[in-house]
Write a structure and sequence with these properties.
heterodimer; A: alpha/beta; Rossmann fold; 2 domains; 23% strand; globular; B: mainly alpha; two-stranded antiparallel sheet; two-stranded antiparallel ribbon
Chain lengths: 252, 357
């Protein structure tokens, strides 16, 4: 049984069908990449999964549980974390505060214990910090703990967003164009990290990506979308040689 | 330049980050405590008023500065606090019991108003809160049983700890203690998960939501907490004014609070105190200046609101970080001397963010 399944998802904005009857399943521990030209519906798919968009039809299953009606803020509690295509960091906060927010779903204090900052609130901060430090070590963010996001270079910001998603201790990680805007070295580092997230942390990854050499290097399986429809899905080799995919990209 | 060598996570959690902090803030509190020995009743009254404004400012700062929700009707919460307090005191409830009730009532009123109103954002929220201010003013006029209507409501000045609120020294200490307590409460909220969630909502609602922050709940909570602080300030204000009339809690008071947080510096608790000092002394300053101006200008009736507006515009244009921002710049100038660059505080243009999700 797959860890995550999308069944017959259709999203329509007026007459435009951004996604048309899309179905696929993902096994635990996979790195699953979604590719496709601009406007293919990739980001729409992510927004449906994180419940920001309401699908017109279809269901989503995570660990055999139907999450099509779950509230958006409860998605991360189930163990699904995401990053955004155009960074959505908390800009006027430090890296540390951004990462600590990743622990928000584990909050046990109530407003009264916070107003008086009781020992339990202090203990909780320590627990949060322990996990955050693990992620900081994992992604080499030690230099930036107290820096405001405003003052960080783009590559580091991307990294912080990945770190923030990891702080939620997810089972499934959605990465929306993780390598866009990165230098070659940063992309190579990212490749190693993604592999490590899969093998060391045991997190399943769904990724939207355009850099095909990067995609072929890290993905276990690939899904190609065009105009909201599935063109092909399979191993990287199969997708590379698929006629429909070539047609969509090259227009041959 | 100070370099803090961190060896414990507690150092990031504690309020005082280093011994310098401890020394200067203790000194400040000490000065505030001995102040009545030097100052006369008039200035003590003024400083009490500044303390009250600061508490109200903390309330609005949490809502606008930290959660990023505008409010143009915050005088309503001052009114709720003041009338509730006066009503309870009139009915023989002692001071120490009345204050917690005032805080709870304002918290609940904030939540009750917050839940429906916070579906709106930006400009529409500002208009709705503006309307809230007007509605509250009318409720204070019409609900005569509770507020005394246009006749007004005298505020009883009961004995508390064997002292009278007519004693300006005693009232000054009461205000000071409440300001310090409110400050600690606000700092504690802001360094816990709830405060961070507020900041998250301010900077990116969509990211906050994807990290598990319940937007509706936390926005309402922010409104409620803000209401509670402002309500407390209202209760003290009732003692300060001595006689409540509905037109005290008008739009001008709301705008004064807004001016306070903008001038003080959005998103900083220091800013509330700086802003309160500024707003509290400004009318006095204007009154003094009137005497020296030619009478054709000095005796104009609309001088005060005009200057308030002018100052607000000036700060938004030239010092968006407010007095606290200016203070940070001066501090950094001396810390980095002689290598300070003006560009440090320049907000860089962000091209990476778009309206798309």
């Amino acid at each position: 049984m797959s860890l995550f399944e999308v069944k017959n998802i259709t999203v329509a904005f007026g007459g435009v069908k951004a996604l048309n009857d899309v179905s696929f399943g993902i096994d635990k521990g996979e790195i699953f990449t979604i590719i496709g030209p601009n406007g293919a519906g990739k980001s729409t798919l992510f927004n449906v999964i994180s419940r920001i968009y309401e699908p017109s039809k279809g269901e989503i299953y995570f660990e055999n549980q139907n999450i099509s009606k779950t509230k958006p803020h409860n998605i991360s509690k189930l163990g699904i974390a995401r990053t955004f295509q155009n960074l959505e960091l908390f800009e006027n906060a430090t890296v540390l505060q951004n990462l600590l927010l990743g622990r928000h779903i584990y909050k046990k204090t109530n407003i009264l214990s916070e107003v008086f900052f009781t020992p339990s609130a202090r203990k909780q901060e320590h627990e949060y910090r322990l996990k955050v430090e693990e992620v900081i070590d994992f992604l080499d963010l030690q230099h930036y703990r107290d820096t405001l996001i405003n003052g960080l270079p783009y590559g580091v910001r991307k990294n912080v967003e990945l770190a923030r998603a990891l702080c939620t201790d997810p089972k499934l990680l959605l990465l929306d164009e993780p390598s866009s805007g990165l230098t070659n070295e940063e992309t190579i580092d990212l490749g190693f990290w993604i592999k490590d997230i899969q093998s060391l942390l045991g997190i399943t990854i769904i990724m939207i990506e355009h850099d095909m050499s990067f995609v072929n290097k890290v993905s276990d399986r690939i899904l190609a979308l065009n105009y909201g429809k599935i063109l092909a899905s399979g191993l990287p080799e199969e997708i590379k040689n698929n006629e429909d995919v070539k047609q969509a990209y090259m227009g041959e | 330049m100070r370099f803090i060598f961190k060896t414990k996570y507690s150092q990031d959690i504690n309020i005082a980050k280093h011994n310098g902090d401890r020394f200067w803030y203790s000194l400040l509190i000490l000065i505030m405590v001995v102040l009545p020995l030097v100052l006369d009743d008039f200035y003590l009254g003024e400083i009490s008023y500044i303390c009250i404004l600061s508490i109200a400012g903390i309330g609005l700062m949490i809502l606008s500065g930290y959660t990023g929700l505008a409010s143009l009707g915050h005088a309503a919460f001052l009114g709720v606090g003041a009338y509730t307090h006066a009503f309870l005191l009139t009915n023989g409830i002692p001071f120490y019991a009345s204050i917690p009730v005032v805080i709870i009532v304002s918290f609940l009123v904030g939540a009750a108003i917050g839940i429906p109103i916070l579906r709106l954002t930006g400009m529409y929220l500002a208009i709705a809160t503006l309307a809230l201010g007007f509605i509250a003013e009318h409720v204070f006029i019409k609900w005569e049983h509770f507020t005394g209507g246009n006749r007004g409501l005298p505020v009883p000045q009961p004995e508390f700890l064997g002292m009278s609120f007519y004693d300006s020294v005693f009232f000054y200490y009461v205000c000071l203690v409440f300001l310090i307590a409110a400050m600690f409460a606000a700092i504690n909220i802001l360094r816990s998960p709830t405060g961070r969630a507020f900041v998250a909502i301010r900077d990116s609602e969509i990211a906050a939501q994807s990290l598990g922050v319940n937007l509706g709940l936390y926005k309402a909570l922010s409104f409620a907490i803000s209401g509670a602080f402002t309500g407390l300030a209202g209760a003290l204000l009732a003692h300060y004014i001595g006689y409540l009339a509905p037109d005290i809690f008008n739009i001008f008071l709301s705008l004064t609070l807004l001016l306070l947080i903008v001038v003080g510096g959005m998103g900083s608790l220091h800013g509330t105190v700086f802003g309160a000092i500024f707003v509290g002394f400004l009318p006095q300053l204007i009154a003094i200046c009137r005497d020296y101006l030619p009478s054709s200008i000095g005796s104009q009736p609309g001088l005060e609101p005009m200057l308030f507006g002018l100052i607000l515009v000036f700060f938004i244009l030239y010092e968006p970080l407010g007095i606290y921002g200016r203070w940070m710049k001066i501090k950094l100038f001396f810390e980095l001397f002689p290598t300070y660059k003006r560009q440090t505080f320049k907000k860089q243009k962000v091209f990476t963010k778009s309206d798309r999700v």
